[in-house]
Amino acid sequence: MESQPVVLEMAGNCDGTTKSNDAFVKDITTEGKQSDTFTDEGTSELVELPPLTYIDFIPECKESQTAGKEPSYADFGSVVDQANRWLLSALKFEVYKCETLSVKLSADYKPQTGQALLHVASNGKNSYLRILRLWLIPRTDSNSPAQQLGYITVLPDHASGSRTQVLNLFPGTTTTRNVVEVNLSSFDNVRTTVDRLNSQLQLKPLPGRVLTVETQTFKCLESGTCDKLNPEASLWSEAATTARLYLTGLRIFYVTGLPACEAIGFYDEVPEMFHSKDGLGLKVKFATVDQTLSKASHWLQRQQDVRVVSIQMIDVKLERTQVSNCTKVQCDPLQSGYTETPGLTEMRYTKILRIAYIKGKTLDNSPLYSGINLTSRLFIPARIKRRNFETFSQTMHQVASWLRTSGTPLLMCETTRYYCSRPDFVINGFQSYLMCI
After folding, report:
1. What domain of life (predicted)?
2. Residue ranges of domains in the chain
3. Helix segments in 236-369, DSSP class H
4. What b/e readout covers 41-77, taking b as 16+ CB neighbours within 10 angstroms?
């Protein structure tokens, strides 16, 4: 039986600094003919290249933390520049996918890149640093030039025509009322944002070929602060007890070159919801990831002239609504953003499946994915004892080993996080989430 591509869900820690996760990428600048092995540093032993690995690039700290002041970091564009310099010498690998990750910072603003179990304060402020993760596979064409990456960030526009003007209506410190009164329905939803982007790309194509299209959320406003929307900022924070407004945007990474004149599309598969009464309350159950993937497979098999560039599990906020005196929970995958108001309204989320693709003609005009059945495998960091887990890079060894032994074709991978609901993971007022692969 022919093996099928698999979607790897990487549950989310961000291991590594500007180095890779293990010795596989430690010394890959050796010149010579492309092969599936290289010589490990300090030995004559040939080490097989992994079928999948990664490397993280972290923004440079421009100004250290001082009393009462956060440190200053270079913007996100700087890590793409770092990656491009590295790619010029990393000629044994090619970039399979780009990923923007928000890494939790410790109290002294050090990136917690090696931990699988991370804690979010239920009181006080949580700070994060946006880093770039490159997923790498062995290079298939040794004669092609080194890849160089570019990116654009696309945010929903406002009905008034000026998103910036609307979000800057609140000078000084934002209040909870300011956040709650922002009308999110006045912002373009995801589909309208993509349509606007495609119209712009017709007039001014990207200088290259699209590699990854990812959905990202960006904090716009937070009560008690003067914070404003800045998608290029690397450092951002949120307090656990404040009202916050987030917008949903897109980040498109591309391999620079001649314009490919591509148009972007996407398909969302929302898990089926089952409502039932639980005493006086409402109980909601959701279809499993496998069931959701199965439905998405049926859609993908029927598509012609598309190239999949991203498969992403996205957290979408759920909303309670009253329909004919009946309470329902609804999920809008196209929402332009959402608000979080701790203590005022409940905050529940579900994961939806989003497939981003490029529209175009295939060589034989036939469906590329007609024989594909999407499956997934979740790699969870091994628990050593109590709240001590192996690092993300150690979990990555499980992935490489499984890909080698199973021979399963890889369609997509991602880093995602899962919140821990067990009581022993709630520590001194902190909630916890586990980063898996």
Report:
1. Eukaryota
2. 6-436
3. 289-301
4. eeeeeebebbbbbbbbbbbebeeeeeeeeebebbbbe
Cα distance between residue 288 and residue 409, in whole Å = 22
pLDDT of residue 348: 86
d(CA 34, CA 94): 12
Least confident among 67-71, 223-227, 391-395: 67-71
CA 308, CA 96: separation in Å to the nearest integer? 12
The two tokens of residue 319 are 């909303």
Question: What whole-number percentage of the chain has pLDDT above 90?
Answer: 50
Output the pLDDT for position 7.
Answer: 54
Split at pLDDT 50, 70, 90, the class of 113 is confident
Residue whose structure tokens are 């990474």: 253
Which segments of 369-423 does DSSP mark as H helices, in order? 392-406
The contacts of residue 254 (CB under 8 Å, 6+ apart) are: 149, 150, 151, 206, 207, 208, 209, 210, 211
pLDDT of residue 377: 93
Q: Report the C-alpha gap between 409 and 330 in whole angstroms.
A: 35
| Position 286, amino acid | F
C-alpha to C-alpha distance for 26 and 18, rounded to whole angstroms? 11
Rounded Cα distance between 211 and 252, Å, is 8
Strands in 190-348 per DSSP E: 208-222, 235-239, 244-256, 263-269, 273-278, 281-286, 306-323, 326-331, 337-340
What pLDDT was estimated at residue 193? 97
Phi, psi of 157 (to 5 degrees): -90, 170
What is the sign, positive or negative, of the torsion defined by CA atoms of 326, 329, 334, 339? positive
Determine if the pTM surpasses 0.85: yes
The Cα–Cα gap between 324 and 328 comes to: 10
Mean per-residue pLDDT of the chain: 83
Measured CA to CA in angstroms, residue 355 lies from 71, 197, 214, 273, 371 at distances of 37, 17, 10, 20, 17
